[in-house]
Amino acid sequence: MAFETLIRQMTQAASRGDGNAVASCFTDDGVYHDVFYGSFRGQEIADLIENYFHRDGENFVWDIHQPVRQGDIGYARYVFSYDSRLPQARGRRGIFEGVAICHLQEDRITRYREVATAASGLYLLGFSAQSIHRFVKHDTENLLDRPETVGHIDRKSAGPS
Fold first, then answer.
1. Helix (H), strand (E) at residue 21
2. Cβ-proximal residues to 126 (8 Å cutoff; 6+ apart), any chain
3. Could you say which DSSP state residue 85 is in?
4. Residues paired with residue 130 on neighbouring β-strands, in sequence order
5. Strands 26-34 and 108-116
6. Cβ count near 46 (within 10 Å)
7. Is the pLDDT of residue 93 over 90?
8. d(CA 102, CA 79)
9. How far apart, in whole angstroms, are the C-alpha atoms of residue 129 and residue 133?
10. How far apart are CA 19 and CA 14, in angstroms?
11. 111: closest CA among 34, 27, 30?
């Protein structure tokens, strides 16, 4: 299966709330790392879709743009939106742009993570500046914990004074 087909199959299943179809796009021990909810492995991925995504949102649209595959890694730019079900954001629509990074084994995903413009989506949902700050701080800590950022910044001096 082509990467473009796989990533569209996964995102369309997530949009309609079919957690098992999303999980079937992954290897049995595959990991989906969501920018908000964290990491889910194997069949837990179905739980992410059915009990987190669709608990907190509805009317999902997840468009994929320029998917490419290089060896065992696939990248796809996306625009993702939904109407919030959260009490503090009910009736608001969040829109997020990002890039999906998929490590692949044959025709399935072994590891999915994303880099997203989440702060703008949270702003559109009406989240407070303090909530957005906490999210950005957590996102920054995750970035600094990744091996590829070693040598870019002295972690002890990172962040506001």
1. helix 19-23
2. 88, 89, 92
3. -
4. none
5. parallel
6. 19
7. yes
8. 16
9. 6
10. 6
11. 30
HEC readout, 34-64: ECCCEEEECCHHHHHHHHHHHHHEEEEEEEE
Helix (H) or strand (E) holding 22, with range, is: helix 19-23
CA atoms within 13 A on the CB side of 106: 5
Q: How does pLDDT run across 49-80, given as a tens digit for each residue?
A: 999 999 999 999 999 999 999 999 999 999 99
User: What number of other Cβ atoms are within 10 A of residue 40's Cβ?
Assistant: 23
Q: What is the residue whose two structure tokens read 């999303």?
A: 22
What's at 123, amino acid-wise? Y
Give the list of residues 6+ apart from residue 147 with CB closer than 8 angstroms, or none. none
SS3 assignment, position 136: helix
Q: For residue 148, what pLDDT is reported?
A: 86
pLDDT, one tens digit per residue, over 3-12 is: 999 999 999 9
